[in-house]
Amino acid sequence: MMNRVPLLEVRNISKYFGNVVALKDVSMSVYDSEVMCLLGDNGAGKSTLIKILSGVYKPDEGEYLVEGKPVNFNSPRDALDHGIATVYQDLAMIPLMSIARNFFLGSEPTKGWGPFRRFDIDFANRTARAEMAKMGIDIRDPSQPVGTLSGGERQSVAIARAVYFGARVLILDEPTAALGVKQAGVVLRYIAQARARGLGVIFITHNPHHAYAVGDRFTILKRGRTFGTFTKDELSREEMVRMMSGADELDALSHELSEFARREATEAARIDKQLAESLEEAEEIFEHDSSSEQKG
Amino acid sequence: MTSRTLPKTTDERLVEAGLLKRLLTRPELGALGGAILVWIIFAVIAGNRGFLSLQGTASYLEVSSYLGILAVAIALLMIGGEFDLSIGSMIGAAGATIAVLGSVFGVPLWLASLIALGVALLVGFINGTMVIRTKLPSFIITLGSLFILRGLTIALTRIFTGRTQVGSLDQLEGYEVLRTLFGGSISIGGAAFPISIVWWLAITVLATWVLMRTRFGNWIFSAGGNAEAARNVGVPVNRVKVTLFMATAAAAWLVATIQLTVVKSADTLRGTQQEFIAIIAAVIGGNLLTGGYGSAVGAALGALIFGMVRQGIVYAGIDADWFQVFLGAMLIVAVLVNNFIRDQAEKARR
């Protein structure tokens, strides 16, 4: 895996805001067919890093490479043109507009010519429905407002849209943060499916359970620096939690927290079981889809 | 989430409930019901006094058409998330521009009208650009331009003509061209239907087509629905909004030109309070004050209700003083009904 060229890579990135060091010497990469989790507590620098990756900010130091070639993004549109799509937690969808209209917003298909060039709403409806079906969601009516969908389904419309418009790298900003366990499972399932379709996924979260369920590799940020990147077998979830929150502080608190940790463990086991089940189901759907595609 | 084993049954259910649900979620439904109700009320109380005659119909359609042209334009702007309180002043300004150019500077009226269109587009452009650059609410910016425009119109007209009204415009060169385009009428069964009704219908059809069937229409909804999300996917939100401000000002110019042609004079106070009535018509038509949702047909129906009430009261012999009471009450009722319908529709879809 390591001798392949990563889809996206940053090397020794730093970003300063005045005298505040937001990021210092951060390196990370994502390959195709991989879920790379970016973990960190609040204020760890996750948001700054995402904004650099998605073209909102420019790094003050360091290199940004896409498929091995250095790039210099001036806007999110530039990043998009390089196949890097970012799905933001709350700014992804317009609730009162239909699913199909949201899906094609900004890149509407047209038919006809000259003054009769018009939005091809039938194509939009058909395609939105088909693309959602590929992710295992049956939307009854693509002309229904996005506001009628659940939070997890909205995220998945945004993911399906990014994939349809040729994204090779998906950056998902805390897609599970505002969701309940079941809805989060739904989103994790789509992340797994995006990986199965060959995309590189950068999954930003501060929830180690969610990260551990789908992640292949993990980059942990703390106070603007990185602890490095670990594969799943190099790092247990407990170690991950310790790194995120800081080992020393945690040790000091461990006595107080032991009771809490015991409860946490039972809860974690329950969540892991639930997530494993929905992932299995997702893989089944995907296998089912790809085998029927091959037939057709 | 629906299980993947059920697509056939869900599709059948969709067809079954489709028509009713689709009707319920249309923003103009409330206005359509209201228009029918108002028509029935006046048909009953004023039917034998001429409300139902062709002449009566032509008279309320004419009143509706002036307001309808404005309301449809303002509806698009409101769907795009902005307001324009300066359109009433723009009507006075456009009319005065044409009259001063024609009577003082000897510009043929048709050319004067084209120049006034240019002025209107410029005012719309300035309004839009100010709103975007200052990031102030368009309510504030256009409230300012309401007074600036009206003041400029009165002051400049007085400087050039010594008065605030300019008459006998039909004596001026180039009036005939305007009369053909804006002042004519179509005779149906002996009743004269003013050509402004055709303009109103044409603009409603055009606006509906733009909203529902073009890329630009999709951008209008997104600019009002969530401008930040729209920008993130590459929608030129600022350009959309400026264009809508320009279209709104152009609608005010059209109304000014039609009125000037029909009454053969210009008055600097013309259009006063039209901005509020146009917004009321748009809101009755199901357009959300907060943007992102609404319809041009709804706004046109809102204007129709306004016209029927205004003329219906006259036919029914009710004191016209009561008209404003009705207008205000209807605004509040319409918003309540629209909210109720939208809630029901959202529930029906679940």
What does this structure look like?
Chain A has helices at 46-53, 76-81, 99-103, 121-134, 151-164, 181-196, 208-214, 237-245, 247-295; strands at residues 8-17, 20-30, 34-40, 61-66, 69-70, 84-87, 110-111, 118-119, 169-173, 200-205, 217-222, 225-231. Chain A has 296 residues and is of the alpha/beta class. In chain A, the strands form 3 sheets. Chain A has a 6-stranded mixed beta sheet, with helices on both faces. Chain A is globular, with a radius of gyration of 20 Å. Chain B is mainly alpha-helical and 350 residues long. Chain B has one domain: ABC transporter involved in vitamin B12 uptake, BtuC (Orthogonal Bundle), CATH 1.10.3470. Chain B has helices at residues 7-25, 29-46, 54-79, 87-103, 109-134, 138-161, 175-183, 196-213, 215-225, 227-232, 237-263, 274-284, 296-316, 323-349, and strands at 165-166, 185-188, 191-194, 266-267. Chain B has a two-stranded antiparallel sheet with strand order 1-4. Chain B has a two-stranded antiparallel sheet with strand order 2-3. In chain B, α2 (29-46) packs parallel to α13 (296-316). The chains are: A alpha/beta (296), B mainly alpha (350). At the A-B interface, α2 and β8 of A face α1, α8, α9 and α10 of B.
What is the topology?
The complex is a heterodimer of chains A (296) and B (350).
Chain A: E1 8-17, E2 20-30, E3 34-40, H1 46-53, E4 61-66, E5 69-70, H2 76-81, E6 84-87, H3 99-103, E7 110-111, E8 118-119, H4 121-134, H5 151-164, E9 169-173, H6 181-196, E10 200-205, H7 208-214, E11 217-222, E12 225-231, H8 237-245, H9 247-295
Parallel strand pairs in A: 3-10, 3-11, 6-9, 9-10
Antiparallel strand pairs in A: 1-2, 1-4, 4-5, 7-8, 11-12
Helix pairs in contact in A: 5-6, 6-9, 7-9
Chain B: H1 7-25, H2 29-46, H3 54-79, H4 87-103, H5 109-134, H6 138-161, E1 165-166, H7 175-183, E2 185-188, E3 191-194, H8 196-213, H9 215-225, H10 227-232, H11 237-263, E4 266-267, H12 274-284, H13 296-316, H14 323-349
Antiparallel strand pairs in B: 1-4, 2-3
